[in-house]
Amino acid sequence: MRGWIVVLGLGLALLTGCESRPKFAPVSGRVTLDGKPLVGASVYFQPVTPEGSATAPAQGSSGQTDTDGQFVLKGGTGEDGAWVGKHKVMIESHAPDPGSSDSRPSRGGLSLKNKVPAKFNTESKEFFEVPPEGSSAANFDLKSK
């Protein structure tokens, strides 16, 4: 009797567990700012919890753009890609901001300024849907104005 309970439990776990778990899929793309590759930018994908769902969003993924603005996302544990589904996208690229004074920078060095407008990071309304097969077309053509 006890053996049947174990077999039944494993069968139910296989039927419900495998298909209901979200899938990770490869994601890559390119970021440009005003038509030019955005070099050294950080690209963040944060899964969005479906409306009406009680589950918390999964861990996000991130990538760094290369000299051509290309990036490949990696999850927090090093796997390539992002969770399948809708993601909020945030992109930022910081550069030293010398400011307008001639005084020496503080001990920490020059402050950093985000070259990417806030509407693509702290105020982002940019979304990307990761399909089950993944995508190599997560492209973002940002405008500074």
Structure description:
This protein is mostly beta strands and 145 residues long. The chain is built from one helix and 13 strands, in the order αβββββββββββββ. It has a five-stranded antiparallel beta sheet with strand order 7-5-4-9-12, with no helix packed on it. Strands 2, 3, 6 and 13 form a four-stranded mixed beta sheet that branches. Strands 1-8 form a two-stranded antiparallel ribbon. The radius of gyration is 21 Å and the shape is globular. Mean pLDDT is 82; it is low at 3-19.
Q: Could you give a short description of this structure?
A:
With 145 residues, the chain is mainly beta. It has one helix at residues 2-20, and strands at 24-25, 28-33, 36-37, 42-47, 61-64, 70-72, 74-75, 82-83, 85-92, 94-97, 111-114, 127-130, 140-142. Helices cover 13% and strands 34% of the residues.
Characterize the largest beta sheet: strand count, sense, and whether it forms a barrel.
5 strands, antiparallel
Low-confidence regions: 3-19
Percent in strands: 25-35%
Per CATH, the class reads: Mainly Beta
Extended strand count: 13
Rg over CA atoms: 21 Å
As a percent range, the share of helical residues equals 10-25%
Helical stretch tally: 1
Q: At CATH's second level, what is the architecture?
A: Sandwich
Average pLDDT number:
82
Derived structural class: mainly beta
